[in-house]
Model the fold of this input.
Amino acid sequence: MKKKKRVVFIQYIILGIIAVIFIVPMLWLFLASINPSASAGISLPKNPTLDNYLAVFTNKDNLRGFANSFYMSILTSVVTVIVSMLAAYPLSRYKLRGKAKFLYIILFMTSLPINAILVPVFKMFITLNMQDNLVSIALFMAATNLPYGIWMTKNFMDSVPVTLEEAAKVDGAGASAVLRRVIMPLMKPGIFTVLIYVFTGVWGNFFTPFILLQSSTKYPAAVRIYQYFQDGGMIEYGRLAAYSVIYMMPCVVLYMFAQKFMSKGFAMGGADKG
Done:
């Protein structure tokens, strides 16, 4: 009994340490964002103000950066979900030769880091004159997210009863109608799970657009954050914190809005079926 209590006590200590690791940076962000003389340390602002937020919002380059981020994230997410649905359907519903090997290849590709292939990709973009183009980069990031998207969508689709699909076909519905009117409505939780994963991944992606974009006017918000790191090691901590708070809000709101869909999506067993 004492041993069990000791184990529980150690678990609480570990959870407490993890909570502090997450809470302290968030606390610094909030306090520094309303502090006109913020520094690298945590301190209560003597004269709280929203000037840092106003400075961020009144900067046209910042607004353009957020717009670019929304454009790339939404386009990448939509393309990934559509292609994943089309690719997952035959993998889920038909017995194909070599399907198991193909799924193992997809599973392996989910572990490949994007940064490892950016150099040849950059050369390919230069050759095809695709560099400095938001659409091209969004399509490239959609391609890099497809292994995860196909794997998860296929497993979510496995949880949809085939009998419903067969009943729709008996009523005269074609394959496309079955996919749109039967499978997709039942897969909303799974679709939202993939959509949120891709959106947040693209929203927070710094290295890919930094390498493949050349015009500063096309930089997304993740790259625009560099403006607060000035030459000589000077950092505008207050505006940096305000920018960071604004930058993370779309993902926070998206998670809050789609939380019920995500919980249902993982409950469908998409993460552990193959």
The chain has two domains: 1-49, 60-234+244-267.
